[in-house]
Amino acid sequence: MELWRDKIKKTEPYVPGEQPEGKNIIKLNTNENPYPPSPMVKKAIDEYSCGNLRLYPSFVCKGLKSALSDIYNVGEEEIFLGNGSDEVLALCFMTFFNSDKAVLFPDITYSFYDVWCSLYGIPYERIPLDNDFRIVKEDYFKENGGVVIANPNAPTGIYMETGSIEEIIENNRDSIVIIDEAYIDFGGSSAVELIHKYDNLAVVQTFSKSRALAGIRVGCAMANAKLINALEAVKNSFNSYTLNSLSQAAAEAAARDTAYFEECCNKIINTRTWTVEELSKLGFETLPSCSNFIFTTNKNIDAGSLFEYLKSNGIIVRYFNKPRINQYLRITIGTDEQMKALIEAIRRYP
């Protein structure tokens, strides 16, 4: 009788990183920014009129779209905003992936992709990464119902050059290519400039990582106006007011403070370099990362055991007990002090 249960049973939900409680925890498992948001964000929140909460927020998000338009040199009509990049991506899947052909994405990547496909009944195919955990671009030069590439990829942190991304787009003119750039600001070049050249491209970004606003949930997609209009139509069929007014004010302030944004990104990049060097001295091999995390392994240390050891010492990293990557740990780059504590803890590993 209750046929809806069958679909729910077949959908394995995304499992987010642990959110521990406690002041003495060093939390390096969810790729959050270790630094606070821009001081301009605090100013925007302090100046926000609480009385505005009685009103529905703007559904056109004029101020935030204007800021993003200035940053990325795109038109406001080429910007779509949502409640975190997860919602934006989910709406992209729902809007653009409607054929009976399989959507293509890597076998090791953001694990929400196959969840959305299962939830929405979208056929999909996981394309294996090569032995170095890199995407083989030619594997995506075939018939499909869409392509999704996280760049840099997660959990590996490996970045694919824009030229290779463009080749994938060029070879898939009959389907939509989504480039998920959640971590692009930590060492890569965005593919946003290509949206004016290719009408089958959507680039998705987030305010959660480089702009330190994971708590307010703001994400965006940039594409040609036709694709954005389609996204808006689907969104407005569910909820026209996805971004609350306080989030809009905070995100606009963060977007406009480019100096602080660049300062934080550079600090994280420098700390990442130091961490990789120190881990190398301890026998770790780390994949080349252009993200705010690293993916590392030590052939003499079991990753699962090290994960549990670090956790028992108040340091939480991410461990994926999955084929090919079950001897790796994903470690978010924290402050210099946090990463020094991590290295010292590993040195004491029995």
Topology:
Elements: H1 4-10, E1 26-27, H2 39-47, H3 62-72, E2 79-82, H4 84-96, E3 103-106, H5 112-120, E4 124-127, E5 146-150, H6 162-170, E6 177-180, E7 201-206, E8 219-223, H7 225-236, H8 245-256, H9 258-281, E9 285-286, E10 293-297, H10 303-312, E11 315-316, E12 318-319, E13 329-332, H11 336-347
Parallel strand pairs: 1-11, 3-4, 3-5, 5-6, 6-7
Antiparallel strand pairs: 2-8, 7-8, 9-10, 10-13, 12-13
Helix pairs in contact: 2-8, 3-8, 4-5, 4-7, 9-11
In short:
This protein folds into 2 domains: 21-36 and 259-347, Alpha-Beta Complex (Aspartate Aminotransferase, domain 1), CATH 3.90.1150; 39-256, 3-Layer(aba) Sandwich (Aspartate Aminotransferase, domain 2), CATH 3.40.640. The chain has 11 helices and 13 strands.
Structural commentary:
This protein folds into two domains: 21-36 and 259-347, Alpha-Beta Complex (Aspartate Aminotransferase, domain 1); 39-256, Type I PLP-dependent aspartate aminotransferase-like (Major domain) (Aspartate Aminotransferase, domain 2, 3-Layer(aba) Sandwich). The longest helix has 24 residues, at 258-281. The protein has helices spanning 4-10, 39-47, 62-72, 84-96, 112-120, 162-170, 225-236, 245-256, 258-281, 303-312, 336-347, and strands at 26-27, 79-82, 103-106, 124-127, 146-150, 177-180, 201-206, 219-223, 285-286, 293-297, 315-316, 318-319, 329-332. The chain is an alpha/beta fold and 350 residues long. It has a seven-stranded mixed sheet with strand order 2-8-7-6-5-3-4, with helices on both faces. The N and C termini lie far apart (56 Å). Strand 9 and strand 10 form a beta hairpin.
